[in-house]
């Protein structure tokens, strides 16, 4: 797929095609941000995030959720964003706990629930997520 030899992305793709969950996640991140010598390609990123998620990766579903939240490469859907953030949060990813808290705070894709939002922010902060710690200072 790549027109250059030995790049980070090319090495990751070889490993990702062999089912390496970590490589699938990292390759998805490269495509998501247009980094590592590849052009930004949300559809390709989602392909790799879905592959990593199928192997129960904790972080990949948060990227899928973000795509749905903002309509990047998929139809915008708050309820789908919540679904994917929930999967990621349930697997222990503190970034998804924070993002899910935002959805509850704003009532996007779920009924507005400040108690649940605060609970999620606290879980995220307990795991060291700085954005959650900052949010709680003003919540």
Task: Summarize the structure in words.
It is a single chain. The chain has helices at 8-17, 21-33, 42-54, 60-70, 78-90, 94-106, 114-126, 130-137. The chain is mainly alpha-helical and 139 residues long. It has 2 domains: 1-56, no CATH class; 58-139, Serine Threonine Protein Phosphatase 5, Tetratricopeptide repeat (Alpha Horseshoe). The longest helix has 13 residues, at 21-33. It starts with 7 loop residues before the first helix and ends with a helix.
Fold blueprint:
Elements: H1 8-17, H2 21-33, H3 42-54, H4 60-70, H5 78-90, H6 94-106, H7 114-126, H8 130-137
Helix pairs in contact: 1-2, 2-3, 3-4, 4-5, 5-6, 6-7, 7-8
Q: β content, as a range? A: under 5%
By CATH reckoning, the class of the largest domain would read: Mainly Alpha
* Largest sheet descriptor: none
From the spread of the alpha carbons, the general shape counts as: elongated
Count the domains. Answer: 2
What's the oligomerization state?
A: single chain
